[in-house]
Amino acid sequence: MEIIKTVGLTKNFKRFKKQAGMLGSIKGLIRREYEEKQAVGNLDLTIREGEFVGLIGPNGAGKTTLVKMLTGIIAPTCGSVSVLGYYPNNLEHEFKQQYSVVMGQKSQLFFELTVEDTLRLFKEIYGLPEEEYQSSKDYFVKLFQVQDLMNVQVRTLSLGERMKMELIAALLHNPKIIFLDEPTIGLDAVASKQIRGFLAEINERRGTTIILTSHYMEDIKALCKRSIVINHGCKIYDGDTEKLFERFQKFKKITFTFSEPTLLPNLEFEARILEQTPYKKVIMVPKENAAGLLRELMNLLPADITVEEEEIGTIVERIYREGGDGLA
Amino acid sequence: MDLRKYLEILKIFIKTQLAWRGDSVIQILFSLTKILFASLLWGTIFAGREEVAGFTLSSMMSYYIISSFLTQLDMSSKVSMEISQRIRNGTFSKYMVIPVNIQGYFVAMEMGMVLFHLIIYFITSVIWVFLFRIRFVFAPDPAILAGMGILILLGLFFMVQINYYLGLLTLKYEEIGLFLMIKDNLVAFVTGSIIPLTLLPERFLWIMKAFPFYYVTYLPSMLFIGRLKGELGMGLLVLSCWCVVLQAVIYVTWQNYRIKYDGVGI
Q1: Counting CB atoms within 10 angstroms of each CB, which of A178, B128, B243, B256 has the fewest?
Q2: B266 lies in a domain?
Q3: What are the structural domains of chain A?
Q4: What is the pLDDT of residues B224-240, one digit of tens each?
Q5: What is residue A328's predicted lDDT score, i.e. its pLDDT?
Q6: Which of B9, B19, B97 sits opposite A112 (nearest CB)?
Q7: Is the CB of residue A299 less than 8 Å away from at least one CB of chain B?
Q8: In chain A, what residues touch B262 (CB-CB under 8 Å)?
Q9: Which of B99, B106, B92, B78 is nearest to B12 (CA)?
């Protein structure tokens, strides 16, 4: 069943433009100049119930603007949008009762109070019966393993702990859709992995539709079967996540560190050396050659090896250049 | 409207106030300092005189205590600051995505803060009266005191409304510092919290009676000390009318400016 549908969804922002310097400031005072910027342009989108969809794109691509339109925070300039059968910007309580939004850099918690206090507030705001509230809270507290943190002041929690609490607050009323905007931003690898695990479980067990925006490849690859790539407000890929990375993620960045000064031999493969010091070599290699390079350089007895994926921006650029398969 | 959610919001803001012990103690001390200065000032003005503009020193001090009590009780300027700041930094969405009436949320927030401060200031005021041996003058008529109570509640609600409205103007004007400054100065002067309005020219008073601020602090304070009883009915009527009008203005403003919110910020 379709629960999100947009047709020709567009959002333009008007912004004040000013020349630099004092003269520019004075001119701006007398005569205001504005420019219009398209954040999202003519976007068609359909999402079905229970899907876990990744929204990918570089900074300023329009991902967050799209999420804001889908949640009713901002009104579209033109086009149509329907979420759970509602026009989001009407901000009807019945609609807001059925979704949740977690933005990595914005908090719903009260920093002076405990999480328990905030959850109780959310219980009343969403009109949850006591029994349902207790069972839902117990389920998430156990899942997120935060039993010991329920009665401490929110401001004393670490970033990872706080994000878990934000998720509990957002999931407490069992929403049909949850919008997650950069939920792992600033988190370390362990905390990010935990959060990913929780989200996967919620999607599978509860059938919650999840829309995730993230800069991190790991998040998208691990969680989203379907990915939508957005650049300059336009959709440039909509399809299977595995296929996306298979086709457009062409290189791996491999870092070798050595405990003794080591010379790099002539490489048999096509590779680009990004950094070379006696103790460290950073090499960019086509992903099909990564295994061969690793085998070859293992003979040099490296102290440590790191293999990294290409950055999301690079992939987006490549899709943009080559055109995206699977584009709806 | 499900009142339980607003009651929980009210409770959460009482809890928030209780989180800061030092802040509460400083507020009590600050209030005591204010009355000390007021007693010095009015003591000097009344030196060698029995009455000034129909006030004895006791009735003047009683007026000062009750009007400053009411002024401090009004926490509504936090409403406009909170809305304005959140709209400017893009976090106003916090209120837009939860199923509550946003104005109702702020009214409940104000009530939570007022209830907490009501207790603090009541204790402080009692200390003032005993410490400075003020012969406290107040109306003995329960009907007048009940009317005064309703007027105070209406006044507090009106102040939340006006601050909520000014906060919403950020959606259009982005910067509302000037509006807030005008409001603050107007309120400080016109509510009579600086000096009793009877000391001002008659014509000025007559104009003020058509506006709501006269009834927010000044009239309840005067009613409390047993004066201007005849104005209670008019006060209730004028203030109620202003609340209704402002509510309509808020509705129209929100419907029109809501779509201007761009959520740009952090």
Answers
A1: B256
A2: no
A3: 2-10+40-247 (3.40.50.300), 251-309 (3.30.70)
A4: 888 889 999 999 999 99
A5: 40
A6: B19
A7: no
A8: 13, 74
A9: B106
Q: Do B97 and A113 touch (CB under 8 A)?
A: no
In SS3 terms, B197-259 reads as HHHCCHHHHHHHCCCHHHHCCHHHHHHHCCCCHHHHHHHHHHHHHHHHHHHHHHHHHHHHHHH
Contacts of B116 in chain A (CB under 8 A): none
Q: Is B254 a residue whose pLDDT tops 90?
A: yes
Question: Is B103 domain-assigned?
Answer: yes
Alpha helices in chain A (DSSP H): 21-30, 63-70, 93-96, 115-125, 130-143, 159-171, 189-206, 217-223, 241-248, 290-298, 312-322
d(Cα A44, Cα A36) in Å, to the nearest integer?
21
Indicate which of A94, A98, A103, A114 best probes the interface with B, i.e. most B CBs within 10 Å of its own CB: A103
Residue A12 has φ and ψ, to the nearest 5°, of -110, 140
pLDDT tens by residue, A232-269: 899 989 999 988 888 888 888 899 999 999 888 887 77
Mean pLDDT across chain A: 88
- Quote the pLDDT of residue B1: 65
Residue contacts between A and B (CB atoms, under 8 Å): 78
Q: Is the CB of B98 less than 8 angstroms away from the CB of A68?
A: no
> Is A125 in Cβ contact with B97 (below 8 Å)?
no
Is B132 part of a structural domain of the chain?
yes
Mean pLDDT check: name the lowest of A94-103, B3-12, B62-71.
B62-71
Contacts of A156 in chain B (CB under 8 A): none
**Cα-based torsion angle of the residue sequence A67, A222, A225, A287 in order, rounded to the nearest 10 degrees:** 110
Inter-residue contact B172 to A14 (CB < 8 Å): no
Residue A324 scores a pLDDT above 60: no
With a cut of 80, say whether residue A96 has pLDDT above it: yes
Average pLDDT of chain B is 87
Give CA angle at A174 (A172, A177), nearest 5°: 120
Structural domain boundaries, residue B108: 3-260
Number of separate domains in chain B = 1
Residue A170 is predicted with a pLDDT of 93
